[in-house]
Amino acid sequence: MADHGFDLLISARWMIPVENDGEILEDYSVAINSGKIISLLNPTEAAAVNAKKRVRLDHHVLMPGLVNLHGHSAMTLLRGLADDKALMDWLQNHIWPAEAAHVADDFVFDGALLAMAEMIRGGTTTINDMYFYHGAMARAGLASGMRTFVGATVLEFPTNYAQNADGYLSRALEERREFLGEELVTFTLAPHAPYTVSDDTFRKVVTLAEQEDMLIHCHIHETAGEVEDARREQHQRPLARLKALGLLSPRLIAAHMVHLDKDEIELAARHGVSVAHNPTSNMKLASGIAPVPALLAAGVNVGIGTDGAASNNKLDMLAELRQAALLAKVGTLDPTAVPAATALKMATLGGARALGIGDKAGSIRAGKDADLIAIDLAEVETSPMFDPISHVVYAAGREQVSHVWVKGRPLMQERALTTLDSSALLENAARWRERILGKGKTA
Ligand SMILES: CSC[C@H]1O[C@@H](n2cnc3c(O)ncnc32)[C@H](O)[C@@H]1O
Ligand SMILES: [Zn+2]
What we know:
This protein is an alpha/beta fold and 443 residues long. The protein has helices spanning 43-48, 87-102, 105-121, 134-144, 165-177, 199-212, 224-234, 238-244, 262-270, 279-284, 292-297, 317-332, 340-354, 388-395, 422-438, and strands spanning 6-15, 25-33, 36-41, 51-64, 66-71, 124-131, 147-154, 185-191, 216-220, 252-256, 274-277, 301-304, 372-376, 401-406, 409-413, 416-417. The model has no long low-confidence stretch (mean pLDDT 96). Substrate binds at residues 99, 192, 222, 307. Its EC number is 3.5.4.28, 3.5.4.31.
């Protein structure tokens, strides 16, 4: 083989490329130039090439970075403030008052950096977020080096960020301008939910998304109450209303989608809607069990998200994909529902496809960006080793994630963060604790 010379050569005991279910490469290397995967090399080929830097991972599995398809990063600063509540009580009586008291540019920047440190330590390389103060979120993304999708929230009611739907949209588009040239930062439009956004605003969002070629990210059919209220007040279920408004398309990432009938699953499939499945948040807020096996069977693309740290309360994608595999079995009483390889694919390639970056991330393949993670499997918790996919999904903990790269740039090496300063983040979090307690806990 010709000796091209590579920027980086990562050799691992096991590799899970993800595209072909169950495929595992043993003792393979990934050759990387300018942040891109150039080729996968067997041991003989790897020994014959030059590389400026070599990383040997002798008892690790190398796999694509995890894609967190639904989160509210800055909500790390509200973690543990209101547990054990149902969604509407949690939102209306606890979270929205706390947000009204504290959310501002510095809250979002500090909270997002804290979230990103946690996510990187757990092997997440991409976050699809929705919150307020989008410039702050985008700056946090650039500082951390994560691939960051910044959801420009749209609501009808006033918050610290804007007064009305037009205000949210115009402020978000203004903040977006500064980051248009940034490859790792992408703005999306994030109408909060069918129960907080009017028909008129949804129509504007669809028009704008088409004009600006943007994704749409929205909470949909999260609780039975949401569906029931809409049926009673608007005489149709939210998804039917969104269809009539033109929202259903491959641009749409529908977060939650817990309460769906058969026709709605078909509708989502027909329109190419992607679903962000949030198993832990759905369990903690007692929202229900999303019909993931039925969505997958209908051909819907499903990714996995953590939701915010105030409703999870971890931003731990390894835990989340384990929950996705387990909850599907509980929901169907079928142990074959969402097998390990399927859960892993949802948490990587499923998320990347939903975000329109399936050609760039979500699997290990020549031509894709090197968004990669390594997990050290030589630990008590993952010994003995029979099947790396089984161990990653069912046994490994996030503490075993050793290395994280985005576009070939290391964000964590041997568990040391390279872009973020953990002690500064801890000091900041402690300061926010004082500020939040100083103004009273929650309403
Ligand atoms: C559009 S982000 C802003 C808004 O959404 C709130 N939020 C966080 N988690 C959820 C959820 O699971 N369902 C509905 N709304 C949620 C967040 O607190 C912000 O106010
Ligand atoms: Zn959410």
